[in-house]
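Protein folds are increasingly written down as discrete tokens. With that in mind, we are printing a sequence and the tokens encoding its fold.
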Amino acid sequence: MLLLAGLDRYAEVCASPQTERIIAAYGAGHSKGIAAYTDAIDSSRATPPDTDLLAWGSVMGSNERAAYDACAAALELAITSGEIRVGVSGWKIKRAALVDRWLTRAAPDDRQLPDDNWLSRISAERIDDWVRSSSGERAELAAAIVPQMLEPPAPVRDPLPTLCWLLGRAADGIPLTARHYIAPTLVGEAVDRFGWGNHASGRRRQELHVVPLHTLRTLATREMGAIKRSGGQLVLTRTGKLMAADPAVQWHIGTSAVIGPDDGPGPEFAVAAREAALLLTLVQGPLGYEELTVRLTRIMSGEGWAARSGVSLAAAACREVHLLRHRLRALDLLAPADVLAAPVALTQEGTVGALSALLARALRPRHHPAGR
């Protein structure tokens, strides 16, 4: 029937080996059939791809699902009509551009609200889901901070100067020692430039003895994906080159690393703790090290977190506060402090950065535990 209707491509899909595999998988069980179908959808050329504007989640709210289906229908029509010719040079760029146009076009109803489009609806839906998915004190803190998250960001005088320095040096290649640490000359340059002398121990020209620098390198490598080791140097990755060329990209990726991703092996507690600690700091103001640890422990306990790997919950929370301070200091978002027990106080740029980190957290795509 499809062939008679001139729908050859649909007929090919129905008779394809992939369709046979999906049917066979359903014969082995519903969950296996769904998994095979999902894999087929993900590999389909008519599936809306992730773009610079939006990364789709495998767990979607009603607005995101409606937008996804609408974009998929628009792509299907464009491919069928020949507007997008699969396999022809540049077709993936055209596909992404079509998705972005669809996401930013006026919403399909008569509300006539300013900036009401699929992208704004998905963003609002994700933020609302981020607040509602919390419980107890975290939910109250999240709800309190949302208005600030949605305000136009205040101008940042010198955004992430330490990261900008690292990327700039990596553009020419950062020389490493025989043990793959940053060369002492550049370690000394960083210490003098950013006033890290009080946060260094032992021999100040060794990377491992300058905690902010080592933390910055670790963040830029593991969580930002901005630099990598190539032979005896640290060099920029493709992402790093984009960050070095565009301050907005650098700011977004850099501040997102304050909390970090939760899609790695077992980081859920650490990510949840960093998020809660930032919420406490922004809503309650600067808190002493001990008070912040106590408040954080109470939040984590109320959410059902327990002792981890033989370490008490209080000790685990204390460790995360300590590590969060390292991250904030490495990115120059933390007010100077002479003693470890000083209050965790953000600079003006740090406040904007913390809000940016939480907004990125709220807007992230949601996925099933096993992935897409």
About this structure: The longest helix spans residues 62-81. The chain is about 60% helix and 5% strand. The chain has a mean pLDDT of 86.
